[in-house]
Amino acid sequence: MLFLTKLQHHGRTHAHKTAIDYLLPDRQECVTYGQLEAHVQQTMAYLLSLGLQRGDRVALQLPKCLPFVYLHLAIMRLGAITLPLNPGYPHSELSYFLADSGASLLFVDAVAKEKLESILSDSPSLNKVIYLQTEKLDHFLDLSANIDASDLPSPPTDPHRTALMIYTSGTTGRPKGAQITHGNLTANLNSLHQAWGWQEDDILLHVLPIFHVHGLVVALHGALNAAATAVLLPKFTPEQALATMVQRQCTVFMAVPTIHKRLVDFPDAGQYNLCHMRLLTSGSDRLPDDLFLKFQETFGHTLLERYGMTETGMNLSNPLHGERRIGSVGLPLPGVEARIANPITDEPLPDGQVGEVQIRGQHVFKGYWQMPNKTADSFSEDGWLRTGDLGLREADGYFTLKGRSKDLIITGGLNVYPPEVELVLVEHPSVAACAVIGCLDDEWGERVTAVIVLKCGQTATAEAIISYCRQHLASYKAPRKVIFAEELPSNALGKVQKAQLRATLCSQ
Ligand code: MCA
After folding, report:
1. 274-279-284-287 Cα dihedral, nearest 10 degrees
2. Residue nearest (by alpha carbon) to ligand 1 atom 2
3. 397 in Cβ contact with 418 (< 8 Å)
4. Within its chain, how far is the Cα of 328 from the centroid?
5. 59 with 97: CB under 8 angstroms?
6. For the chain, domain boundaries
7. Which residue, judged by its Cα, is nearest atom 10 of ligand 1?
8. Rounded CA gap, 137 and 207, in Å?
9. What's the 3-state SS for 3-43?
10. Most informative mutation of 188, 284, 307 for ligand 1 (most atoms within 8 A of CB)
């Protein structure tokens, strides 16, 4: 049974069970599975009244809020495609996503209204921009209140239909829309349900953003799929997260290493008794060994590290029962095939040898939106997804990641592709050449660092360069540090030697 059909079913079988408990600083909004189903139906009727058709893309550039959840589920239920977008994307990035996806509707926070004046004229396929006062839930539900919801279509039954599109960047070219189907979502949810032992009486503390696979699919869909309860915090703070885990007697928590680091560093963290927690996972970035150990020492829980990507959802995971091996991302999840292969020839490599992690299974995405060549390049001839991550498999089947074959920085669990930042930097009038590297950082994993060569006779301060980048890029992509250099080291082919830059400059 596909995920959305199962969720619709929960609306009847678990009508009075809390699905989502949304905790705002001044109030709490509690939604049962029965109410969730009713709100999703109302939202479907509202979307139909706006002319939404199957296959249409609907962009949601909204903060973490209940209207986002209702819209997302309603869009997918109508056979249309949710395009979740980071609310921090500036106008230029947003315009690209709208134009490339050909989205027909954009839902955006009313506070962004002035910034988006020209977005309709910039985006030819966009029919309508809907500004939501996301804090006023009643206002959103009123939009759809007077519509007859009795004759709405059933959830899609075709597993190959795209449900969700999430943009990922790459080493070359502009970001690509990864198309995730209903079948992909369901396969991965079933796999995680089994591997992580999701139960109806689980209470998930949800602190992640919901515009990525981690927060939206793995965490939120995971809880809803199990008819469990998700306690949603609009924003992560260590104090509120720890207090809520205890108050609500949560059982499951999912986060990125930066969040786990902030938890262990929180004063008196060890005073919180988390004995009711049964599963705390870490992903989206490498979990440092010392953090794994400090977490165990502070909270008496062993983090379960897992490995996934936007194009697949989750692939590998340490076991729920059994050894959670430090430094390892564990074993293939049920229904997932994983191998280590030569990144050039795609030949499988023996255990212990480092190569590219390649993945196969029903959870693997159907391709990049309107980019058949990039899609073809991502797969081996026999259908394995080339992840671009390097790793090895030990003789007992555990996988360990060993770096990336692609030029990528991960900061606070978010991916930053240096070429994207470099393309912005070279447009700066004072910049002659630049290289963007990730320097290791205790809190963020890596810190985006720009090495800049100025044009002859030009001057610019680091602050000016950073603020220029923030005008054109989401702020997490903007360099945190700028280093000025006379020249950039390059090899005989003229390629900048980033490893050398990292070795010489990152400790400064
Ligand atoms: C916020 N800032 C960041 C980041 N987040 N800078 C670098 N990297 C970041 N990740 C900056 C803001 O621009 C701002 O800068 C300042 O930090 C404070 O912003 P604020 O929003 O208050 O930050 P925060 O709330 O402290 O956020 C830190 C965070 C957040 C909680 C770690 O980044 C987060 O939730 N990360 C998780 C991301 C995630 O879910 N990734 C999954 C994608 P200024 O003040 O200077 O303007 S990967 C995925 O889905 C795959 C499938 C997988 O395997 O999981």
Report:
1. 70
2. 476
3. no
4. 21
5. yes
6. 1-18+28-157, 409-505
7. 412
8. 20
9. HHHHHHHHHHHCCCCEEEEEECCCCEEEEEHHHHHHHHHHH
10. 284
Share of the chain above pLDDT 90, in %: 86
Surface-to-core class of residue 344, CB atoms within 10 Å of its CB (0-12 exposed, 13-18 middle, 19+ buried): exposed
Distance 56 CA to ligand 1 centre (A): 29
Give the phi and the psi of residue 423 in degrees, each rounded to 5.
Answer: -60, -35
CA-to-CA separations, 159 to 100, 186, 385, in angstroms, rounded:
24, 8, 19
User: What pLDDT, on a 0 to 100 scale, did the predictor assign at position 147?
Assistant: 62
Buried b vs exposed e over 388-417: b needs ≥16 C-beta within 10 Å? bbbbbbeeeebbbbeebbbbbbbbbbbbbb
Secondary element (H or E) of residue 371: none
Name the DSSP class of 287: -
Cα gap 72→74, rounded to integer Å: 6
**Token pair of 297 as six digits:** 């020492």
Protein residue with least CA distance to atom 1, ligand 1: 476
* Radius of gyration from C-alpha coordinates of the chain: 23
Higher local confidence (pLDDT), 398 or 136: 398
Q: What DSSP designation does 394 have?
A: -
| Centre of ligand 1 from the C-alpha of residue 475, in Å | 10
User: What are the angstrom distances between the C-alpha of 375 and each of 32, 177, 344, 368, 370?
Assistant: 40, 10, 16, 6, 9
Domain 409-505 has what CATH class?
Answer: alpha beta
Relative orientation angle of helices 462-472 and 418-425, to the nearest 10 degrees: 110
Report the distance separating Cα 180 and Cα 178, nearest Å: 6
- Of 236, 312, 416, 443, the one to substitute when testing ligand 1's pocket (max ligand atoms within 8 A of C-beta) is 236
pLDDT of 389 > 80? The answer is: yes
**Residue 400 forms beta bridges with which residues?**
392
- For ligand 1, pick from 258, 259, 473 the residue to mutate: most ligand atoms within 8 Å of CB: 258
Residue that the structure tokens 């947003």 belong to: 94
Give pLDDT, residue 146: 60
The topology under which CATH files domain 1-18+28-157 is Rossmann fold (3.40.50)
Residues with a CB atom less than 6 Å from ligand 1:
208-209, 212-215, 235-236, 256, 258-259, 283-284, 308-310, 411-414, 444, 475-476
Kindly give the distance from the C-alpha atom of residue 2 to the centroid of ligand 1, in angstroms, as a whole number. 31
Tell me the pLDDT band of 345, cut-offs 50, 70 and 90: very high
- What is the C-alpha to C-alpha distance for residues 61 and 84, in angstroms, rounded to an integer? 6
How far is residue 414 CA from its own chain's centroid?
Answer: 7
Pick the range with the lowest mean pLDDT from 82-86, 259-263, 379-383, 401-405.
Answer: 401-405
Residue 37 in contact with residue 247, Cβ under 8 Å?
no
Sequence-ordered alpha helix ranges (H) in 248-336? 257-265, 289-299
